[in-house]
C-alpha cells in the first residue's frame, strides 16, 4: 500500500508513532525508494540523522525555524519534500498547501495510532476542506525487538494471551485471516545467551498499520470534529491490519514474541 502511495505525484503521506518508534527510518526508506536522478527531493530535519546522496537535506537551526525552512524549501520547487515532524498549525498549513500544489509531502506526527492523525491535524486548527484532499495515507508504527535466533525456542501461550491473540486473529482482514488459520500456530520466546548478551533479543523490526484516504474518509474529515475511534472503525471495515495484528503475524513467523508485541502496544 505504501509503495502504491509513493508513486502518486502529490499529496501527503504521514507516519505516526511515539518518540523512538522508527518514524524517521520509515521516512528515509521511503525517500530511498523515490531517489532517482530526475526526481528532486528536499528535506527539512531536526537534526539530519543520515546523509543521503542525491537528496538536498537541510537542518533546522535556532535562527531558522521549521516554518521558515519549509517555505524556503518549497521555493526550490521540489518534486518531493520531507519535513521531520509537523508540530504546529503553521507547519501543518504549509505542508498541506504544498501537498495541494503538486508536491509529494512526507512527514510525521506524534500520535499513538494511525487513526489519531486526523483528529490531531484538526485539533491543531487545520482546515477540513484543505486537509481532506491533501492527505493520501497514514501509517502507524512501533518497533519490536527481534528474538535471538540462537536461543529462541517454541513456547505455548498462557490462556490469557492465547485468548487475546485468538480475538485479534478473528478480526484480521479476510485473506490474511484465512492464511493464518491454515497454518500451524507456533509462538516463540528466548531466555538469552552469550550471542545476545543474555537478553533474548537482538535487533528490532517495525510493526505497522496503514490506511488510505478515500472519498468516505474525506467526507468524515469535511464533517470536522471526527473521533479517532470512528476513523479506526472505518479503516478496519476497509481492511486495515492493526499494528497488534501485524505484530502477531511477525510472532507467528518466529521473528518476535507475543509478550514483546503486547509490551510495545500496551
State the total count of DSSP E strands. 9
User: What strand order characterises the main sheet?
Assistant: 3-2-4-5-1-6-9
As an assembly, this protein is single chain
Terminal Cα separation, in Å?
26 Å
The helix/strand class is alpha/beta
Helix content: 40-55%
Rg for CA atoms: 20 Å
Enumerate the spans where pLDDT stays under 50 for 5 or more consecutive residues: none
Principal-axes geometry comes out as: globular
Q: Helix-strand pattern, N to C?
A: HEHEEHEHEHHEEHHEEHHHH
Q: How many helices? A: 12
Q: Main beta sheet: strand number and arrangement?
A: 7 strands, mixed
Strand content: 15-25%
Look at the structure and name the CATH superfamily of one domain: P-loop containing nucleotide triphosphate hydrolases
Q: What is the CATH third-level topology name of one domain? A: Rossmann fold
Mean pLDDT rating: 94
CATH class of one domain: Alpha Beta
Characterise the protein shown here.
With 266 residues, the protein is an alpha/beta fold. The protein has a domain at 2-143 and 204-240: Rossmann fold. The protein is 42% helix and 21% strand. A seven-stranded mixed beta sheet has the order 3-2-4-5-1-6-9, sandwiched between helices. A two-stranded antiparallel ribbon has the order 7-8. β4, α4 (89-100) and β5 form a beta-alpha-beta unit.
What is the element layout, followed by pairings?
Elements: H1 2-6, E1 11-16, H2 23-34, E2 41-45, E3 56-59, H3 66-75, E4 80-83, H4 89-100, E5 104-109, H5 117-124, H6 128-134, E6 135-147, E7 152-154, H7 159-170, H8 174-182, E8 188-190, E9 201-212, H9 215-222, H10 228-237, H11 243-252, H12 258-265
Helix pairs in contact: 3-4, 4-6, 6-9, 11-12
Amino acid at each position: 500500500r505504501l509503495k502504491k502511495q509513493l508513486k502518486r505525484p502529490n499529496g501527503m503521506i504521514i507516519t505516526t508513532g511515539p518518540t523512538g518508534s522508527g518514524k524517521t527510518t520509515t521516512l528515509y526508506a521511503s525517500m530511498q525508494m523515490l531517489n532517482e536522478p530526475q526526481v528532486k527531493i528536499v528535506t527539512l530535519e531536526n537534526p539530519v540523522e543520515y546523509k543521503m546522496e542525491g537528496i538536498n537535506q537541510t537542518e533546522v537551526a535556532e535562527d531558522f525555524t521549521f516554518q521558515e525552512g519549509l517555505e524556503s524549501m518549497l521555493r526550490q520547487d521540489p518534486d518531493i519534500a520531507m519535513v521531520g515532524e509537523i508540530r504546529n498549525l503553521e507547519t501543518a498549513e504549509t505542508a498541506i498547501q504544498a501537498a495541494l500544489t503538486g508536491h509529494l509531502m512526507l512527514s510525521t506526527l506524534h500520535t499513538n495510532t494511525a487513526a489519531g492523525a486526523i483528529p490531531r491535524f484538526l485539533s491543531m486548527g487545520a482546515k477540513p476542506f484543505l486537509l481532506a484532499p491533501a492527505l493520501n495515507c497514514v501509517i502507524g508504527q512501533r518497533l519490536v525487538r527481534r528474538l535471538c535466533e540462537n536461543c529462541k525456542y517454541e513456547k505455548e501461550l498462557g490462556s490469557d494471551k492465547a485468548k487475546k491473540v485468538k480475538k485479534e486473529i478473528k478480526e484480521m482482514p479476510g485473506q490474511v485471516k484465512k492464511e493464518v488459520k491454515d497454518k500451524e500456530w507456533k509462538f516463540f520466546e528466548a531466555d538469552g545467551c552469550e550471542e545476545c548478551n543474555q537478553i533474548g533479543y537482538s535487533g528490532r523490526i517495525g510493526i505497522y498499520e496503514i490506511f488510505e484516504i478515500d472519498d468516505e474518509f474525506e467526507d468524515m474529515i469535511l464533517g470536522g470534529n471526527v473521533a479517532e475511534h470512528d476513523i479506526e472503525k472505518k479503516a478496519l471495515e476497509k481492511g486495515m491490519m492493526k499494528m497488534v495484528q501485524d505484530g502477531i503475524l511477525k510472532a507467528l513467523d518466529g521473528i518476535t514474541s507475543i509478550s514483546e508485541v503486547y509490551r510495545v502496544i500496551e
